[in-house]
Specification:
- Two copies of one chain form a homodimer.
- Chain A has 191 residues and is an alpha/beta fold.
- In chain A, 39% of the residues lie in helices and 18% in strands.
- In chain A, strand 2 (50-55) and strand 3 (61-66) form a beta hairpin.
- In chain A, helix 2 (27-43) runs parallel beside helix 8.
- Chain A is globular.
- The interface between A and B is large, with 55 and 55 residues.
Chain lengths: 191, 191
């Protein structure tokens, strides 16, 4: 009997676009990668979200992820969780802060789930492109994330940067909606 | 080259203790399983947390999980996320509410991460044993979970039940601490 496991697959094309060790020197270069991953995921039927974990001072890439909710059938598999989890398994530490100074670069602000996941990941920063209203404008539900979410992360030593290539990332969200993409998490279920 | 993936392994002993399809008729029977999984995980060096996803009306088990943070090197791998993710992959749906009426039974109240993950999981209920102060009393950090967390879940059609076998679950937490177990997430990192 093979061991039972939960699998989140990282497609080969993600690894090709975002090879471990490649260097993305500044915030815009890092975000250009995250947005390109989101865009490429849409072209393959996935959700319009991409993310990467990079070393803060060098921009060296550790891991990249895309939304795998539909492909893997897992609600947890948002791009942020995929990238942070792959980074942790690659570096052999459930706490990235124990092995270096890393940040998460994501094509959209974290939803309530990814907000919660950030606290235990060990990233020291999160850099965002599209804002929650951009995702909500095309029908995605961000959940009851606290209004002061950035402050709550700051209080735990996680720096927050917003609006890096916001328009480019919002355009990918609109493109997904225009193509008739599946809007999962479309608001409260019927009780 | 093998496909790259994030893996959360479900140990054989978990599957043996909690076979898919077994029936746990009431809240206490379901929680006795979650607490027994937590206790057994401690005996194997894991975190003191167990969880299960069951069909609400029948008590039929879909999936069980234990804390795999240390074993798999993943901060996301709390027992609740492991059980909900395995249930989703077994039932072939990232939204459990689309395929039935399921609840999460967990040996401890959700932390900020698992609170966030509940919204997109599709469970219609969450049943908890130990309270957050019980976990905090032995050094675990629950993060900035909103004070009205249960109300926020209720508003999304997720029923919350607390204090089922609370003392039994709290005893497992104290046992873990007494054995010198690794308290990961021990509070805010130094900025």
């Amino acid at each position: 009997m093979p061991p039972i496991a939960v699998h989140i697959e990282i497609p080969d094309w993600v690894t090709a676009m975002a090879p471990q060790g490649a260097v993305f020197p500044d915030a815009e270069a890092r975000m250009r990668l995250a947005v390109a991953l989101a865009d490429a995921n849409v072209a393959r039927g996935g959700g319009p979200f991409g993310a990467a974990v990079v070393e803060r001072y060098s921009g060296r890439l550790v891991a990249a992820g895309v939304n795998r909710v539909l492909a893997d059938g897992l609600s947890i598999a948002h791009a942020e969780v995929v990238a942070m989890s792959l980074a942790q398994q690659r570096l052999g530490s459930f706490d990235l802060s124990a092995v270096g100074d890393y940040e998460l670069v994501t094509s959209a602000e974290p939803c309530v789930q990814c907000f919660g996941a950030l606290f235990w990941s060990g990233v020291r920063g999160v850099v965002c492109a599209a804002r929650s209203p951009d995702a909500e404008a095309v029908g995605f539900d961000e959940g009851p994330k606290p209004a002061d979410w950035a402050k709550l992360l700051n209080a735990r030593g996680i720096a927050v940067t917003t609006d890096v290539l916001r328009q480019e990332a919002a355009a990918v969200l609109r493109q997904y909606a225009a193509l008739g993409g599946n809007i999962y998490n479309p608001g409260p279920p019927n009780p």
